[in-house]
Write a structure and sequence with these properties.
By secondary structure, the protein is an alpha/beta fold. The protein is 39% helix and 21% strand. The protein has 15 helices and 22 strands. Strand 15, helix 13 and strand 16 form a beta-alpha-beta unit. Helix 10 packs across helix 11. The longest helix is centred in the first third of the chain and has 24 residues. The chain binds nicotinamide-adenine-dinucleotide. The site of nicotinamide-adenine-dinucleotide has 29 residues, from helix 8 and helix 9.
């Protein structure tokens, strides 16, 4: 029988279709949950509103709320290995990566516990007979809609600041990865977050996601996912005049100058595109190499890529596990075929792995793939593939580089490899990207805000200010007149 889900403080079967989690390394079933439907959304939102209005949550002191979040962090850490394995089975990422994601989730709750306790309202300068303040109240019931690629971390990135702000949250995980979000629901409950404040509603995006976004009592949507769904959510939010944060797709440039430390750059480029099997919004999927070192750099990159270890996600040494599903691998294969049809040359990969080391047949594996010879306007170079596929393009000088790197609808991230710090400074400002890594890649800190430009999204998550998107700012004026307001006399 399908497992229950968390609807408004109660664990019970949802009224929607069952959601099945498959281990993409071998196709075995991890579990089945009774997914939600629109009636469950109504119930969860109503109970979330009621729980927010209850003095037990509404009037909780900031340090008490912070303490609860610290408790969530501790429980995540206590269950670290179990959650990492569950996350690995849900989406196939190697165990080393999922351990890091769980540690990140614990850190996120710890950080926002501290933010809850230390954020302050403001006294604004008085310009008359009053004392004026700017204060922050919870915005209301929040819908947190997340993708399948790093669920435990992206769920925490929305849950923790929203709870720190005093909101109720309805968490909707992606259909293929429902399991970890439900465990986070259990952990919030065990840490003492009042019933109804957190609901977890797995279900199809077109039904549950849509019902949440259009629900009149959802006050804010925090969305991470693809650009097309994000655009649709933005349109729906406009009708309600509802604020949304959208963390969307990317096609990020990585740039290697002739003066770069080549061994650092080779490792950084490989990590940037092939870790997480390329299923990463910030994957450095367009590589620009200065023409003078193109051949040398390409040869080193291909050689090292061919030595990557693909296989069992539970093996500590594995660098690339399977893709999240067979359907997703089919999509990547279509892109590789398109790249070939567009005139690209596959330097390595372009096929499923073979060999005796692992039973690749049962899982959705794909080799790391490098293309050369495509123009910057090829579809393979412009569209987000969300898989282990890299396109190499040459550039001549800074102006040529900026023109090519910015010639994309996306603006999520960028990697710069150069020993010239003045150049790095110039280019970091000129390239359209929400995050620029200089002589590193995919480094993250919860203390540093993150988000995209252009079609990579709007709004920022993380950092102390990350709590603000879940709050309404209000003005208070305390009159200090000794006499009545004169106008009415
Ligand atoms: P997706 O857009 O298909 O789905 C994301 C979430 O939205 C899922 O929970 C899905 O069920 C839900 N959804 C689908 N249709 C919906 C609708 N009509 N209304 C409301 N919700 C709906 O994305 P995905 O395939 O799960 O994830 C991959 C995408 O996510 C990639 O484009 C990737 O770049 C992006 N991503 C971005 C970031 C970031 O921080 N910028 C991080 C991770 C992933």
């Amino acid at each position: 029988m399908a497992d229950p889900i968390l609807i408004g403080g109660e664990w019970k079967p949802g009224r929607g279709p069952d959601m099945v989690s498959i281990y993409p390394a071998d196709g075995s079933e991890n579990g089945v949950v009774a997914g939600a439907d629109a009636a469950d959304v109504d119930e969860a939102v109503a109970k979330g509103r009621a729980a927010m209005a209850d003095p037990a949550w509404r009037d909780m002191k900031p340090h008490e709320r912070g303490g609860l979040l610290m408790g969530v962090s501790r429980l995540i850490s206590e269950r670290h290995e179990e959650l990492a394995r569950l996350q690995m089975r849900d989406n196939g990422k190697p165990i080393g990566e999922t351990r890091a994601l769980v540690a990140s989730a614990a850190g996120t709750f710890r950080y926002y516990g501290a933010v809850a306790e230390t954020m302050e309202d403001e006294i604004t300068p008085s310009r008359g007979p009053y004392v004026s303040m700017s204060i922050y109240d919870p915005i209301g019931v929040v819908a947190a809609i997340t993708p399948w690629n790093s669920p435990v971390a992206s769920d925490a990135q929305k849950l923790a600041p929203a709870l720190a702000a005093g909101c109720a949250v309805i968490l909707k995980p992606a259909g293929v990865t429902p399991l970890v979000a439900l465990e986070l629901g259990r952990i919030c409950e065990a840490a003492g977050i009042p019933p109804g404040i957190v609901s977890v509603l797995p279900g199809p995006g077109s039904v549950i996601g849509d019902a949440l976004v259009t629900h009149p009592d959802i006050a804010r949507v925090a969305f991470t996912g693809g650009t097309e769904v994000g655009r649709r959510i933005a349109r729906q939010a406009a009708d309600k005049l509802m604020p949304v944060s959208l963390e969307l797709g990317g096609k990020s440039p990585t740039v290697v100058f002739a003066d770069a430390k080549i061994d650092h750059a080779v490792n950084g480029v490989i990590f940037g595109i092939f870790s997480s099997s390329g299923e990463s919004c910030i994957a450095g999927s367009r590589l620009f190499v200065q023409r003078g070192i193109l051949d040398e750099f390409t040869a080193a990159l291909v050689a090292k890529t061919e030595a990557l270890r693909i296989g069992d996600p539970a093996d500590e040494r594995t660098q690339m596990g399977p893709l999240v599903s067979m359907a997703h691998r089919d999509g990547i294969e279509r892109y590789v075929a398109l790249g070939r049809a567009e005139g690209g040359e596959v330097l390595t990969g372009g096929a499923r792995p073979e060999g005796s080391g692992f039973d690749y047949e049962k899982g959705s594996f794909y080799r790391p793939t490098i293309f050369a010879g495509l123009p910057n306007d090829a579809r393979m170079v412009q569209e987000e593939i969300f898989g282990p596929v890299l396109a190499i393009l040459p550039f001549d000088d800074e102006d040529d580089l900026v023109a090519q790197a910015n010639d994309t609808v996306f603006g999520l991230a960028c990697g710069l490899w150069t020993e010239d710090y003045r150049r790095a400074w110039r280019l970091a400002r000129r390239i359209d990207a929400g995050t620029v890594w200089i002589n590193t890649y995919k480094m993250f800190s919860i203390a540093t805000p993150f988000g995209g430009l252009k079609e990579s999204g709007t709004g920022r998550e993380k950092g102390r200010q990350g709590i603000r998107q879940y709050q309404e700012q209000k003005a208070l004026y305390w009159g200090t007149n000794e006499t009545p307001i004169g106008w009415a006399d």
